[in-house]
Design brief:
The complex is a heterodimer. By secondary structure, chain A is an alpha+beta fold. Chain A has 16 helices and twelve strands. Helices cover 42% and strands 11% of the residues of chain A. In chain A, helix 5 crosses helix 8. About 6% of the residues of chain A have low confidence. By secondary structure, chain B is of the alpha/beta class. Chain B folds into two domains: 195 residues, no CATH class; 154 residues, GMP Synthetase, Chain A, domain 3 (2-Layer Sandwich), CATH 3.30.300.210. In chain B, the strands form two sheets. In chain B, strands 1, 2, 3, 4, 5, 6, 7, 8 and 9 form a nine-stranded mixed β-sheet that branches. In chain B, strands 10-11-12-13 form a four-stranded mixed β-sheet, sandwiched between helices. In chain B, a hairpin with a 6-residue loop joins strand 1 and strand 2. In chain B, helix 4 crosses helix 7, helix 8 crosses helix 9 and helix 10 packs across helix 11. The longest helix of chain B is centred in the C-terminal third of the chain and has 29 residues. The termini of chain B are far apart. Classes of the chains: A alpha+beta, B alpha/beta. Chains A and B meet through helix 10, helix 12 and helix 14 of A and strand 1 of B. Chain A: This is Spore germination protein KA.
Chain lengths: 553, 385
């Protein structure tokens, strides 16, 4: 099945104008403060409705939850004379919160003295709501809503005698991993927070960085069994509505039993599932997500996964690390060019070595050829076999290193260094230059900041080696052309993957070939921020803030 | 999608039926030729060819230890020779006698035996230029009064391969660096080729090997045949004119027994052009040089302009005598390595067509004018002593 693509040309885009929409966030009064539930529940059959008969309600609820032994039913007497029950999932609610703000306040509450100046609480549940001191309260009218509140939203549901409305109270708690620095995306300079598995916490981290009502967070539940909460985040007025709509449509189309990680979502919504190149970025860093959002991109977070998805992305972003924007720009420029160089090394070096030593020996300087010839004198395998052997061994070592417990990890590095590096050369199985080539290639592939992109390069490297070893430089060039054709046809949520190089948009080229200073990055990427292109005024440029002839203090 | 995959897969799979990787040659199946030599065989007709092959197993570190041969050892290379009617024939004979493929892509020096050079190098250059493996940047030298085969066997004291030593000498800037491209270009134009001579000299001082190679004397050709050697001052004089000199030092003896001054070449600009006067070509040679004083071993205070001009005049006289010697010998040999004929052909084509039949005689009697400008810098601090 081919997903619908948003095909746009630059010429079609309307003139940019800034839109501030402060009135966007019209959230309900009694709603979850973080996650906004947008719509009313559909009308339910009468049999599903809660009745004023408390015992009947509890009985049918017990019946519905008979398989879930971790649901706690606790009876209580509230508002001095009303019988009631609270129902919640054990271990996922904050017990102290329930004790202090639900049980205590309800049990000790006295019936309200009627104040003539103030209208009466219309229903019993509203009266109860006034006593409960938790922040989030939502009325529940049907049995299935109650079940959903308990099981999916992990709320505490309060049933009272004589009321057809139950109250879902937010007492979210339970155990969560602490916020820690993401191991895979460490920085020397920059924030050290990472998302964790709780969507609430992750969204908090995001909201802390973008404090504007324009930050839109749309939640939906995906997965018929897991009912995973998925949040679609973007900034109103910057993000291109066409892209947001497209992402939303693709998310809504997901119909599966489980979403365990955002990786599931990525595969369901990406443009070209068969491409080795990732078309959606994943990151654990809230700062990366925040900076992407203000560029007009869209982020997808899901409960249970610390990885946020970012779309649309382009090819060049794969070579830009978060730190690039925290460190001073001259340093970053050098490092960025180093990354470009090493991306080519990661892709080409082994195949070039094989191709040149087996087909184009005249291309090497004489002395280099002689050293390589001297090293290859004793090795039994042809260069291509030697290269594949070493590359595959290296990949296996890398894979083993990831899965191993830390205590055993050092053993792998010893085995790798000694057996593969030294012993293989000394035994004359593998030539020393090949070990050097494989080692440099290995280092080069770790220089690429985006891990999933580095894997794509690795996959292609093997194709390069095979072609370079069978038809020489001709094969390498042919494969390069194939890759470039593929890349230029690739899209991320409908946006060309090679943007801004192809199609060429001069304004955004700067951030590709270099890292301009922040004061010079005046425009947001054109492909994502159609409605609002200007990032900042141009008064921060040195010529503006340091006028000539005046003393600079 | 799957259909496309299946198509691609079946095409890829069918390529497995094709045998072999067509042109691929592992490095360890090559014998890398570093230098070749051509001689006239004893019968005076056929070619005696020699190749110097680097022994890869003796070079570099194979076992992770130190280099297995010491520098200058004769073991690092191997010389193979064969006779045959043509150069190609010789190469295929040598190839047949070796277990590995001869790889000419890294031949750095071609040594031509003197006898062979006197007979003509046209057919050799034809092969060199045609051979796709051969590099045009291969240096061409002529063995001075010797067989090329002998030259290939002389080890170098400092380099493991003698070819490296020759290449480094060629690139030193004090000799003519003539490669196959330049040689062939001159051969095909209206001038005559020239190149350096190579000579074995006996070095009594050296401990490792008594014999060593040196680039000396200039081989002068008339068309493709060697006619004469420029030696000593004449060779130096030709170097001045040929625009190849980049590094040099001179010592002049000053008149009136005042002592000697050594100078180092700072920069040199050479030009020569033909002027036609009354239908007769005349050659003008212009030379602008700047020297730095290297050592003042005289009693003169060089800060004095008069003393400096004495040095200048002495240098000018020396250079002029060298260039004159070179030009006189070249005119006597009727050999035109400076490309005077080519210049005439380019700028006076009509005159050239008229003169061509008797050009060699005209060249021998052509007047040559010299304009030599010498500047000397760095009188130095010690000069006032």
């Amino acid at each position: 099945m081919r997903s619908k693509r948003v095909i746009r040309r630059i010429g079609d885009w309307p003139p940019h104008h800034r839109r501030m929409r402060l009135d966007r966030l019209n959230e309900p009064v009694l709603a979850d403060t973080m996650a906004v539930a947008p719509s009313d529940p559909p009308p339910s059959p009468p049999a599903d409705r809660l009745t004023p008969d408390l015992d009947a309600n509890i009985a049918s609820l017990r019946n519905k939850l008979q398989h879930a032994s971790d649901v706690v039913f606790r009876p209580l007497v509230a508002l001095s004379d009303k019988r009631g029950w609270i129902v919640y999932v054990d271990g996922l609610s904050d017990m102290e919160l329930i004790d202090a703000h639900v049980l205590e306040s309800l049990i000790q509450a006295q019936p309200q003295v009627t104040d003539p100046s103030r209208p009466l609480a219309v229903t019993l549940s509203e009266a109860a709501a006034e006593h409960v001191t938790t922040a989030g309260i939502k009325p529940v009218h049907t049995l299935s809503d109650a079940v959903e509140s308990i099981i999916v939203e992990l709320q505490v549901v309060l049933f009272l005698e004589g009321s057809g409305t139950a109250l879902a109270l937010n007492a979210g708690g339970g155990e969560n991993r602490a916020i820690s620095e993401p191991d895979a995306e460490a920085v020397v300079r920059g924030p050290r927070e990472g998302f964790n598995e709780s969507l609430r916490t992750s969204l908090t981290l995001l909201r802390r960085r973008i404090r504007t009502p324009d930050l839109a967070i749309e939640t939906m539940q995906l997965g018929t069994y897991t009912q995973t909460k998925v949040a679609l985040c973007y900034i109103h007025g910057i993000a291109d509505t066409e892209i947001v709509d497209e992402v939303r449509t693709r998310l809504k189309r997901i119909d599966t039993d489980s979403i365990i990680d955002t990786g599931y979502i990525e595969e369901f919504i990406e443009d070209n599932p068969f491409s080795p190149f990732p078309q959606i970025q994943n990151t654990e860093r809230p700062d990366v997500v925040a900076s992407m959002l203000v560029e007009g991109r869209v982020a997808i977070l899901a409960d249970g996964s610390p990885f946020a998805l970012i779309a649309p992305i382009n090819f060049w972003g794969a070579l830009q690390a978060a730190e690039d924007y925290y460190e001073r720009f001259p340093i970053v420029n050098l490092i960025r060019w180093l990354r470009y160089l090493f991306m080519f090394i990661a892709l080409y070096l082994p195949s070039l070595y094989v191709a040149i030593t087996t087909f184009h020996q005249e291309m090497l300087p004489t002395k280099l050829l002689l050293s390589i010839a001297a090293a290859r004198e004793v090795t039994p395998l042809p260069a291509i076999a030697e290269c594949l052997l070493m590359e595959i061994t290296f990949e296996a070592l890398r894979e083993a290193g990831i899965r191993l417990p830390k205590a055993v990890g050092s053993a792998i590095s010893i085995v790798g260094a000694l057996v593969i590096g030294q012993a293989a050369v000394e035994a004359g199985i593998v030539s020393a230059p090949m070990v050097i080539v494989v080692a440099i290639t290995g280092i080069a592939s770790f220089v690429i900041p985006r891990y999933s992109f580095a894997i794509a390069i690795r996959i292609l490297r093997f194709g390069m080696i095979l072609l370079g070893g069978t038809i020489g430089l001709f094969g390498i060039i042919a494969f390069t052309i194939v890759i470039i054709i593929h890349l230029s046809s690739l899209r991320s949520i409908g946006v060309p993957y090679l943007m801004p190089v192809s199609p060429l948009t001069n304004k955004n080229m700067r951030d590709v070939i270099s890292r301009p200073p922040h004061w010079a990055m005046r425009w947001r990427p054109i492909e994502t921020s159609k409605p609002n292109r200007q990032r900042q005024s141009n008064t921060m440029a040195p010529a503006q803030r340091m006028p000539r002839g005046k003393r600079r203090i | 999608m799957w259909r496309q995959f299946a198509t691609c897969l079946s095409i890829a799979a069918s390529s497995l039926l094709c045998t072999g990787c067509w042109d691929s040659t592992e490095i360890d199946r090559l014998s890398i030729v570093t230098m070749t030599g051509v001689d006239l065989a004893e019968d005076g007709q056929s070619v005696l060819g020699s190749v110097q092959i680097a022994r890869a197993s003796e070079l570099g570190t194979t076992g992770g230890g130190s280099p297995s041969t010491s520098t200058g050892s004769a073991k690092a290379y191997l010389v193979e020779s064969a006779e045959g009617p043509t150069e190609i024939e010789v190469i295929s004979k040598i190839r047949a006698s070796l277990p590995r493929k001869l790889f000419m892509g890294h031949r750095r020096v071609i040594v031509i035996g003197e006898e062979y050079a006197r007979r003509g190098v046209g057919q050799l250059m034809d092969e060199v230029v045609r051979n796709p493996q051969s590099r045009l940047r291969t240096y061409v030298v002529v063995a001075f009064h010797e067989q090329a085969q002998k030259m290939l066997q002389v080890p170098s004291d400092l380099n493991r391969l003698p070819s490296d030593a020759i290449v480094e000498m060629e690139q030193s800037g004090s000799v003519l660096a003539v490669d196959a491209r330049r040689f062939a270009k001159q051969l095909t134009s209206h001038s005559d080729p020239y190149t350096m001579g190579i000579r074995i000299f006996t070095n009594e001082m050296s401990e490792a090997s008594p014999e060593a190679l040196t680039l000396e004397n200039i081989a002068v050709f008339r068309r493709d045949k060697l006619v004469d050697w420029l030696q000593g001052p004449a060779a130096k004089g030709f170097l001045w004119v040929s625009k190849d000199l980049r590094e040099d030092s001179e010592t002049v003896i000053l008149p009136d027994d005042t002592g000697k001054v050594s100078v180092r070449l700072g920069s040199v600009r050479t030009s020569h052009h033909v002027v036609v006067i009354h239908g007769q070509p005349e050659l003008y040679i212009n030379l602008h040089t700047i020297f730095d004083i290297n050592q003042n071993a005289s009693r003169l205070n060089l800060l004095r302009p008069s003393n400096m001009s004495m040095v200048r005049q002495a240098l000018q006289a020396k250079i002029q005598s060298e260039i004159t010697a070179a030009m006189q010998q070249l005119q006597r040999d009727q050999s035109d390595p400076l490309g005077v004929g080519n210049e005439l052909f380019k700028y006076y084509p009509a005159l050239w067509r008229r003169l061509e039949p008797r050009w060699r005689d005209m060249y021998a009697n052509m007047p040559v004018h010299y304009n030599i400008d010498v500047n000397v810098r760095n009188a130095g601090l010690m000069s006032s002593l």
